[in-house]
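Friendly challenge for the regulars: who can give me the structure tokens for this chain first? No prize, just bragging rights.
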Amino acid sequence: MAPNSGAVQTSGSGGLANGWWKAYLETIPGGYLDLLAAEEDASRIVHFHPTFVPGLLQTESYAAAITPATTLKAMTSDDARTLVHVKLSRQRAALEGSRLKELVFLMDETALRRPVGSPATMRDQLSHLLEMAEHPMVTLVVVPFGGQPHPGLLGAFMLMQYGGGLDDVLCFEWQMGNQVIRNQPGLIGRYRELAEDLAGADPDGTAARERIASALAENHEPGR
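First reply, four minutes later:
Bragging rights claimed.
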């Protein structure tokens, strides 16, 4: 369950109606729109997920499998396709948009081993992670199975950071959607410290690449 945050639901400086997502205003939830606006304005995004590959790193087939499977909301096949298209557009905006962003992805090793979709979907996803680990704007950290418990295991979170004296924004992901948190510096600061602790375990991503490659080798195509 998402926390009762007292969140102030305001858009990023671009406004909810003025971004690339305006074509989807009638079809995606307000909490997700708020996240898109916050992402658009950020100069640095940190995303931790304890069980799945973070959305900005998902392949299309992985996203198509995970999106309808992890919501408690009623969702038609058209709804699922729309959300997958939005997710792919988010990726393009973050990686290829006019505003360069530093992207830090923190995921539990569980995400590499949990089957999502077909075996081919998982192989493609793991291969994509290896490619993204070499991207100059991406830092990828895999928290190992053997690591000690930490608060992030209770749920996925994102930090959007802006620089220039602007406050960070926090987002929680849960089964009923996204919850964007502003104007709570104490809470946001604790999540910032948690993210820094997790990232510090593998600052250059070497161990992450080794763990991804190991998972891919174990998920080899039959007959090879």
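The longest strand covers residues 102-108. Strands lie at 44-49, 102-108, 138-143, 157-161, 169-174, 177-181. Your move, everyone else.
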